[in-house]
Design a protein that fits this description.
Rossmann fold; Formyl_trans_C_sf; alpha/beta; 6-stranded antiparallel β-sheet; about 25% strand; 9 helices; Formyl_transf_N_sf; about 325 residues; Methionyl-tRNA formyltransferase; about 25% helix; 7-stranded mixed β-sheet; protein biosynthesis; 2 domains; Methionyl-tRNA Fmet Formyltransferase, Chain A, domain 2
C-alpha cells in the first residue's frame, strides 16, 4: 500500500486505537491525529488524555485536540496537511462539509453497528439493551447526516449470554481494524464499491442518559437482564434501596410465575437476591452500594439486612 498516501485519523476512546494502529501497520502516512481534549477522570478529577492521544504520542504522531472542530484553528491545520483520506472511529464530533469534501479518497468511518441499525454514539449499548442476537462493524463513507453514508464493508459477530458492553467493545474494536485493513486497498485503488443504506431499516442509538440507567421493575426479567449487561461496565444500571442508589452490575433472569408487585424482594441468600419484575424475576448477583465498590451478593449481605417483602426502586 502506498506509503505516500497521507491520512488524517480522528478518534477518541479505546475502540479507535486498533484502527489507528491498522493504518500504521498498512504503511500509510498518518500525518495527523485528531481527538477530543483531555478530560477530568476519576474521583480526583485528574485531567486525563483520551486513549487515542496516548497511542498517537507513543508512535510519535502530531495530535490536535479541538474542543469544537468547526470553531477552531485545527480545521485549517488539517486542511493544510492535504490528506488523501480521512478515517474516523468514535471521534465524537460532526465533520464540517469543508473537511468532508477535501480528501481525494473521501472520509470513511469505522462504526460499531450493522448499519442502518443503531446510528449514533452508543450502538453497542443499545444493541444489547434491545436484545440483539448479533452485532457488527460497518465501514462507510461519511456524509453530513449522522452515520448515513454509503456502506463499503460490513461484518457481524454473534452475541452470547455472557457478553456485555465491555466484551463486545473489545471484539468489535479489533473487528473494525480488520475490516479497515481489508477495505483500504480497494479505496486507494479506486475499486471500492459502496451500497446505500436502506432508509426503512434505520434505527438510532443516542448517547446513554441517566434515565436509561434506571431500572423499571415493571419490565420483564429478560428485558432487565439485557439492560444490566447493556450498561456494564459503564455507566451501570441502578435502582434504589432504603432511599439510596444501588448499582446492579450482574444479574440473570428467572422465568417463573411470580405473585408479587414488581420491585419486591422475594428471596435473599448468598446465591442471589430475587426481585419480582413485570414478567418473571431478576436475580441480582453483583451489586454496588452508594460510596462502595462493586461486590458479590454474599459480600453485600455481610452487615446489610435485606428482607423478603422489601421494595427496590421506591426511594
Amino acid at each position: 500500500m502506498a506509503s505516500k498516501t497521507r491520512v488524517v485519523f480522528m478518534g477518541t476512546p479505546d475502540f479507535a486505537v486498533p484502527s489507528l494502529r491498522a493504518l500504521v501497520d498498512a504503511g500509510l502516512d498518518v500525518a495527523a491525529v485528531v481527538t477530543q481534549p483531555d478530560r477530568p477522570r476519576g474521583r480526583k478529577r485528574e485531567l486525563t488524555p483520551p486513549p487515542v492521544k496516548r497511542a498517537a504520542l507513543e508512535m510519535g504522531m502530531d495530535v490536535l485536540q479541538p474542543e469544537k472542530l468547526w470553531q477552531s484553528t485545527a480545521l485549517g491545520k488539517i486542511l493544510t496537511v492535504e490528506p488523501d483520506l480521512v478515517v474516523t472511529a468514535a471521534y465524537g464530533q460532526i465533520l464540517p462539509r469543508e473537511l468532508l469534501e477535501a480528501p481525494r479518497f473521501g472520509c470513511i468511518n469505522v462504526h460499531a453497528s450493522l448499519l442502518p441499525k443503531y446510528r449514533g454514539g452508543a450502538p453497542i449499548h443499545h444493541a444489547l439493551i434491545r436484545g440483539e442476537k448479533e452485532v457488527g462493524v460497518t465501514i462507510m463513507y461519511m456524509v453530513e447526516a449522522l452515520d448515513a453514508g454509503d456502506m463499503l464493508l460490513q461484518r457481524a459477530i454473534p452475541v452470547t449470554e455472557s457478553d456485555d458492553v465491555g466484551t463486545l467493545h473489545d471484539r468489535l474494536s479489533v473487528l473494525g481494524a480488520e475490516l479497515l485493513t481489508e477495505v483500504l486497498p480497494d479505496i486507494l485503488s479506486g475499486k471500492a464499491q459502496a451500497r446505500p443504506q436502506d432508509p426503512e431499516q434505520v434505527t438510532y442509538a443516542p448517547n446513554i442518559k441517566r434515565e436509561d440507567e434506571k431500572i423499571d421493575w415493571t419490565k420483564g426479567g429478560r428485558a432487565l437482564f439485557n439492560q444490566v449487561r447493556g450498561l456494564r461496565p459503564w455507566p451501570v444500571a441502578f435502582t434504589s434501596w432504603k432511599g439510596k442508589p444501588l448499582k446492579i452490575w450482574r444479574a440473570h433472569p428467572l422465568e417463573a410465575s411470580v405473585m408479587a408487585e414488581p420491585g419486591t424482594v422475594i428471596r435473599v441468600d448468598s446465591a442471589g437476591i430475587v426481585v419480582a419484575t413485570g414478567e418473571g424475576a431478576l436475580v441480582l448477583t453483583e451489586l454496588q452500594p452508594a460510596g462502595k465498590k462493586a461486590m458479590s451478593v454474599e459480600e453485600f449481605l455481610r452487615g446489610r439486612n435485606m428482607e423478603p417483602g422489601e421494595r427496590l426502586g421506591d426511594g
